[in-house]
Amino acid sequence: MPNYYDKLDSVLRALADPTRRAIVERLAKSPAVVSELAAPFSMALPSLMQHLRLLENAGLVTSQKQGRVRTVSLRPGALDVLHLWLGEQRTSAERQADRLGMHLIRATPKET
Amino acid sequence: MPNYYDKLDSVLRALADPTRRAIVERLAKSPAVVSELAAPFSMALPSLMQHLRLLENAGLVTSQKQGRVRTVSLRPGALDVLHLWLGEQRTSAERQADRLGMHLIRATPKET
């Protein structure tokens, strides 16, 4: 099982591409068949499939084939690793702001 | 001023690199001078400066030079655009789950 940093890495690499991000945005609304996903992009199907494979490898999407139709879904909790990382940075930055605030309070001469 | 999608794009591209992500993590704790930032990486200074420039262009960090010392800080609210985007995807995905839930409730035969 990939560790937290490997997972974060592959999720961010996957989302750094605008086409893949648009696919994730579309799938957050509902699952879709591949032809539906391809429609908004002027892109050959093999290129789209390559993006989908990368999203699947990053654990962001999952797909099922029934007959000749492949349906792609956003994997539940797919973006949790990014939420977690952002939360950690925010906590660090808030602590930093608090320390700065405390410093300013201490540095301000008291009114007498 | 860059629009939301341009900003999101440059932030995600910046964070897709593990070195740049490590710099952001370090700066979330406190501002740092360039030599401090360079210390954990076995990397030539020009490469580090290139990463810092990319982070600065993405609006993630800001830097100030005093004499020969450059101090780099995380820009307040730097990651807000990513928070916003994640929130939007989560809202969409939750609505999808709610609709599925409603569908299941409707599809379940009532007990008589």
Please characterize this protein's 3D structure.
The structure is a homodimer of 112-residue chains. With 112 residues, chain A is an alpha+beta fold. Chain A has a single domain, classed as Winged helix-like DNA-binding domain superfamily/Winged helix DNA-binding domain (Arc Repressor Mutant, subunit A, Orthogonal Bundle). Chain A contains five helices and three strands, in the order ααβααββα. In chain A, strands 1-3-2 form a three-stranded antiparallel β-sheet. In chain A, strand 2 (61-66) and strand 3 form a beta hairpin. The longest helix of chain A is centred in the last third of the chain and has 28 residues, at 80-107. Chain A is elongated. The N and C termini of chain A lie far apart (62 Å). The mean pLDDT of chain A is 90. The A-B interface holds A 5, 8-9, 12-13, 15-16, 18, 21, 24-25, 28-30, 74, 76, 79, 82-83, 86, 88-90, 92-93, 95-97, 99 and B 5, 8-9, 12-13, 15-16, 18, 21, 24-25, 28-30, 74, 76, 79, 82-83, 86, 88-90, 92-93, 95-97. Chains A, B: It holds the Pfam family HTH_20. Chains A, B: Residues 1-94 form the HTH arsR-type domain. Chains A, B: GO terms for molecular function: DNA-binding transcription factor activity.
Give a topology summary:
Two copies of one chain form a homodimer.
Chain A: H1 4-15, H2 18-29, E1 32-33, H3 34-38, H4 45-57, E2 61-66, E3 69-74, H5 80-107
Helix pairs in contact in A: 1-4
